[in-house]
Amino acid sequence: MSGILRSRMRRDATSTKPAAVAAERVVVSDKVVVEPEGELEIYAKEVLSSLIKDGLPPTPNNFSLYFDRLLDEKSQSARKQIASVLELEEDNDAENSIMLEQSLKQGFSSIKNILNVTANLYKNMSLMGKILEKRKQELEADSNSQEAKSIAASLGSDISKLNEILQKQSGSIKILYDDTAKIIRNVENETIFDNQFGVYNKRYLMTKVEQEIELIRKFKHKSSLIMIELARDLKSSVSNEKAIMLMTKTVARLLLKTSRRSDIVAHYGNGVFMMLLKHTDIESAKKASERLCELVSNSTFFLADREIQLKISIGITDITESHSVEETIVSTMDGIEKAYENPNLDYAVMLRNN
């Protein structure tokens, strides 16, 4: 019996570290109490489980997409709690890229203004030279103004020298301007931002849709594309182009407001917008479109003494591996036309056979 007791004592003595750890976890009556998981930790596990269940690799990008998509199914209190945590680590890479593009364009505009000012200065100096030459000829007609003739000749010579210097400097500025213009054109070819509406541009959208098609081909998930435009009957009732532009910009802001972080909101052209809804099936895309239409319809626009209720039309289509980017976009256009056929529809779905 004593041997058994001694062996137990030796085991306790040689395992002080685990005992210390266990003691830290003891809270009441020698019972181990595990800290309860927070809302974010539980949700993160749900996201990971959904990724694995759908057969998608748990990459950071896929995790982020599912994180946003599944959040819509949570209660309002849970969404607020999780959103408050996300605000602390907001990724500003896209915003920084947008600011860089805007700064480059502003810099190019400033250089262009400098060139215009220099050109005007050169023109004015040339004009002054012609005026001085005319006054010199008038003085030469008067034989009694020899001193004035000498002064005019001296001034003419000085202005000619100044013109030569200014012309050389203007030429140098023109070369710098041309070099800068080439740089700006290269930047614009790679730009992802639409400066007019504050969303992504068409080139970026096309690239992202093409990438999504490849991902669907590999992982077989579902994604959707929707096209949004200011309703045609609304535009036809407003003859003021400036007002239509302001209403279109309002729609762009509302699209950004209601979109998820994983959604791509882009200006396709001529006031038409598109949203790439990743990992979103048609039913979910329809619900998103309903929310968009409701949000926009609750917004009003004042034109003089007239109150205008904003309205949009939406075309929805699925993204499939067997259809190209262009075919997918055309399908959303067909969806909008289908919506216009029925005055009671704000959106319509156009599906393709795989």
Plain-language structure description:
The protein has twelve helices and eleven strands. The protein folds into three domains: 71 residues, no CATH class; 97 residues; 152 residues, Reverse transcriptase/Diguanylate cyclase domain (Alpha-Beta Plaits), CATH 3.30.70.270. It is 64% helix and 14% strand. Strands 6-7-5-10-11 form a five-stranded mixed beta sheet, sandwiched between helices. A two-stranded antiparallel sheet has the order 1-2. A two-stranded antiparallel sheet has the order 3-4. By secondary structure, it is of the alpha+beta class. The N terminus is likely disordered. Helix 10 crosses helix 11. It starts with a helix and ends with a strand.
Number of helices: 12
Fourth-level CATH superfamily of the largest domain: Reverse transcriptase/Diguanylate cyclase domain
Element-level helix/strand string? HHEEHHHHHEEHEHHEEHEEEHE
Strand order of the largest sheet: 6-7-5-10-11
The proportion of strand residues reads 5-15%
Number of domains: 3
For the secondary structure, the number of strands is 11
The shape is elongated
Query: Kindly state the mean pLDDT as a whole number?
Result: 81
Q: Which architecture name of the largest domain does CATH use?
A: 2-Layer Sandwich
The low-confidence runs, each spanning 5 or more residues with pLDDT under 50, are: 1-36
Helix content: 55-70%
What is the CATH domain class of the largest domain? Alpha Beta
Supply database-style keywords.
five-stranded mixed β-sheet; elongated; 354 residues; alpha+beta; disordered N terminus; Alpha-Beta Plaits
